[in-house]
């Protein structure tokens, strides 16, 4: 499947340790010809961390995509009524965002983008990055695995010795996972 001209939303949440990989894959998306609109959660758009400054991440997203990131709930809300995207990726998706999505909470631009996009019955792709995937958040992941129009980038444990409940998506599988989701299929295997 060609991604040329596909309208892809990429909503970043606060798993800053994954941003290097995320921006690498974001670049690949644009090279494939996708029209990419980024959306930043409040945390992603405002918190400076040991992995970089929020201002630099916002600038980098705009440089790669050519589009100014959405930073507010009111900027993300028109995604639904305007039918602005073919697919939305929560990339990365923290445990906090997973829990809120599974329970219908819409209090960040990333979650508003997801809610607005899902109303159009179009695919939402999730790139897990959470330290409690095999703990308290497993029930939320289970709910989302069974939800209509929600797909996952394959994921697995990232450090079973030091963080036994932690799981992270294989971000290098973004494009094939995205292509499958656009066809209404889950990329397999889902757990690697």
From TrEMBL:
- Please give the InterPro entries that the UniProt record associates with this protein: Dipicolinic_acid_synth_B, Flavin_trans-like, Flavoprotein
Q: State a single Pfam family of this protein.
A: Flavoprotein
Matches recorded under Gene3D superfamilies? Flavin prenyltransferase-like
> Domain Flavoprotein: where?
6-167
> Where, if anywhere, are coiled coils annotated?
none
Gene Ontology MF term list = catalytic activity
Instruction: From the Swiss-Prot or TrEMBL record, give the protein name.
Output: Dipicolinate synthase subunit B
Give the source species. Answer: Candidatus Blautia merdavium
